[in-house]
Amino acid sequence: MVGPENYQDLPADWFLVLTDVKGSTKAIEAGRYKEVNMVGVSCIIAAQNALGKLDIPFVFGGDGATLAIPGDERDRVSRALSLTRKISREEFGLDLRIAVIPVAQVVAAGGEVKVTKVRLSTTQLLPVLRGNGWMLAESWMKEREQEFNLPEDYPAEGDMTGLECRWNPLPARKDEIMALIVQTRMKGLVAFQVYRTILDEIFKPEHKPIQLSALRFPWPSKYLMEEARIKHPRGLGRYWYFLKMSLKTLAISVLMTVRGQNKNLNQPYEYLRELTENTDYLKFDETLRMIIDISREERDRLLAILDRHYQAGEIFYGYHCDSSALLTCFVQGPHNHIHFVDAANGGYAMAAKLLKAQRKAAVY
Questions:
Q1: pTM exceeds 0.90 for this model
Q2: Containing domain of residue 63, as a range?
Q3: How many domains does the chain have?
């Protein structure tokens, strides 16, 4: 965990952008969580592409994303997200909610919005968000939708360059992949200490969900057509892209097979080594989120720890377990790539549902 002294306030002229897929629970129940997941990641990719080399804070939440953007880039990012919403509806039948909220308005309401970055690897930094303003903005996204929602007729313009979704679900090495969300009920430095304690109690390096030994480059790629549907309009161009990428993934799969497991582990391709390092399995936006690979015994021990903190009035938490992980990638260059990981069949979205139920049932 990053100490409170390392965060900086977001400028007052910036905007918070929050997105989520409406009715995501029904889509998940219909077995369509990967589509929901891809739309959430696409929001980050569309916004980042619109801004070029300007990096922005973001957090992937399973069925949506949270971002912060400079005020003078509001229109460019809004156009890109309007396109994402259009693609989501036309290709997947999923309605995307987009809220654009001024930081100054959040601060005026007593919210605090801070940000820093941590080094994920030698090639990638990961934003970390802090302050009650992020959760306040999340509540406004639905409670004040008419005020902050991006207009339906907003111009749509952008691209999804860098979106890659070629990994099939990755089986748990142990028993389960768990998506876990923890929110403290405390404030100030005490809240930070609660998060630190919980993280120390439940997380171990071997819980990382993506390990080199478990990577198998798939063929055929289960979600390649979904990638093509997001990146290319309907027509021959889409099918040509799908054919090219199918041949590319086949060639890589054959090459990895010929090299053999031992060589792939001992002399891995640089991209694969970086992939295991550049995965957002652990993140913080005033809410602790993690994807971990655990045994059933570890799950029971972890849940007992969390329940103890919950009964003590310190936290709310939600979780979802599945037998595999989903991986959606944003590749901007040879060493500039980040990989968004989630538990399959609900992941963060279902964990958030449980957490919200705890909050609703709580007696303050």
A1: yes
A2: 4-213+274-361
A3: 1
